[in-house]
Amino acid sequence: MEIRDAHFPGRAPLDAYGDGGFRFAKMSHRGSVLCVPSGIFGWSPVSFADLTVEAFEKVLDDTADIEVLLIGTGPDLRPLPADLKQVFRDAGIIADSMSTGAAVRTFNVMLSEERAVAAALLAVD
Predict the structure, then answer these.
(1) Model confidence pLDDT, tens digit, residues 59-82
(2) Which one of 4, 12, 88, 90 is least enclosed by Cβ atoms within 10 Å?
(3) 93 with 56: CB under 8 angstroms?
């Protein structure tokens, strides 16, 4: 049996979140997700403390197709550290942190408007 990293190859709105995961494209994923132009990926961070530059490698590899990055910081809004925000600024990406619920809703609206948006979302219970 082969176990692969979770990946949905495409863009899709997020239908639901909570109970430790997300639903999208008639599938569900337990844990955090990273939504970039190349697809929706399972994402390893589980808490705000895990949000390091290394955690955003896929985002920083895809900067040509991302103008806005929505970062869902869990059940509550947590501001990004200045050094992490600067990394995104240097890459030409507007990074905006908000609660995961607000990030999901904003991502869906921006996706429906065909905006160059990505989302990094911590799972919530």
Answers:
(1) 999 888 999 999 999 999 999 999
(2) 4
(3) no
Q: What is the CATH number of the domain that holds 23?
A: 3.40.1230.10
Q: Do the beta carbons of residue 74 and residue 124 sit within 8 Å?
A: yes
Report the C-alpha gap between 49 and 83 in whole angstroms. Answer: 14
| Longest pairwise C-alpha distance within the chain | 43
The answer to whether position 107 is within a domain reads yes
> Confidence class of residue 1 from pLDDT cuts 50, 70 and 90?
very low
- Strands of the sheet containing 14-18, edge to edge, are 14-18, 21-24, 27-30
- Measured CA angle at 35 (ends 68, 108), to 5 deg: 70
Q: Using CA atoms, how far apart are residues 22 and 92, in angstroms rounded to an integer?
A: 28
